[in-house]
Amino acid sequence: MVEKKISIAVINRLPKYLRYLEELAKEGVKGVSSQELSELTGFTASQIRQDFNNFGGFGQQGFGYNVESLREEIGKIVGEDMLKNAVLVGAGNLGKTIAKYPGFRNVGLNIIGLFDRNPNNIGQDIDGIQIQDVKNLENFLQNKKVHIGIITVDKESAQDIADLYVKYNLEGIWNFAPIDLDVPENVCVENVRFTESLLVLSYFLKNK
Amino acid sequence: MVEKKISIAVINRLPKYLRYLEELAKEGVKGVSSQELSELTGFTASQIRQDFNNFGGFGQQGFGYNVESLREEIGKIVGEDMLKNAVLVGAGNLGKTIAKYPGFRNVGLNIIGLFDRNPNNIGQDIDGIQIQDVKNLENFLQNKKVHIGIITVDKESAQDIADLYVKYNLEGIWNFAPIDLDVPENVCVENVRFTESLLVLSYFLKNK
User: Fold this and answer.
1) Contact (CB<8Å) A104/B195
2) pTM
3) Does residue A63 contact residue B64 with C-beta atoms inside 8 Å?
4) From the list B11, B171, B207, which residue is nearest A2 (CB)?
5) What CA–CA distances, in Å, run from A122 to A89, A127, B96?
6) Which of A103, B78, B101, B166 has the greatest number of beta carbons closer than 10 A?
7) Does the pLDDT at position B61 exceed 90?
8) DSSP conformation letters of B141-201
9) Do A190 and B180 touch (CB under 8 A)?
10) Could you tell me how many CB contacts below 8 A there are between chain A and chain B?
11) ipTM > 0.95 for the complex
12) What does the pLDDT read at residue A3?
């Protein structure tokens, strides 16, 4: 479907559109204009139309967009409809939060393995999945089809886990450790950076 | 120090510079060029020099930057040196992770209150702070100087908590709930968006 190179800025906006379209669909709203989407998202109406034009435009000018079909189209573009098997290493508080969050399942994340090195965590059951010793990770990756590797270990261990994910041909890494992972170009890495986010807030408090 | 309007893109890059400068300082490196910083961060050397020029430039052209003083200067700009009292509402797994993470204290975050509505969490001690009933939040905010409010509750409760933070004149909100909070313009909101991050990863897996 996507033929030309889409900029990362556009891609970063797609999940936000999706979030608002889901809200609108839940409220039973059938149609929405780019102007209305602008008021919800804070992006300009022309920005929104430009973004959508990257994917063929979706709507009819002047008639607005059909909420349900727009939601479905954008959902397909971001791959919400694609089941992605995932493993998670680092099943402490953060790892458990992620493993338990039902919203991720709604967007296709299917966590099939949880791993930790802490004996206090190993053996615990998180929504039907038992936390295993991280020593079993390599064997697990050898035997299962896994698409995404989640990293919620400390920064000292993160690269080792990433190396294993790369060795077993995982396609993407969702990284919560505060380091830049060194991986081949064909492996997608998406980082969640708590400290950087906090420092941006701190900047605005200091400079407002 | 900051006199002109700095773009959000520049501000978003500052924490990354800081992270690498801390690594370099730890390794005992004294000086660094914009070229070396470029290799570490992935930003171009000219981008880095432009960014630094927003704040007076820091270094001497041709001699590179002094790691320790650059780290200190950027730390001051982002307000790392400023102690920010914070409360957190939603002391489940995610809230506990945040409350326990030592790295946030290093950048000036001083969590002084933890609140939850779940009786199983209330009364638990997290690194010396007892989780209180969220019913006590308003009284707490009335009596303490709090700068930052952290929101780790579900999206249904997030706006109510934000309203309380606004009522008691908190300066900034660090929001982990998947909604856009409605707050006055003088209140800074920084969002951490797990699902949006996951969907960006999902997009790249689907379209690579």
Assistant:
1) yes
2) 0.90
3) no
4) B207
5) 11, 14, 19
6) B78
7) no
8) HHHS---EEEE-S-HHHHHHHHHHHHHTT-SEEEE-SSS-----TTSEEEE--HHHHHHHH
9) no
10) 180
11) no
12) 52
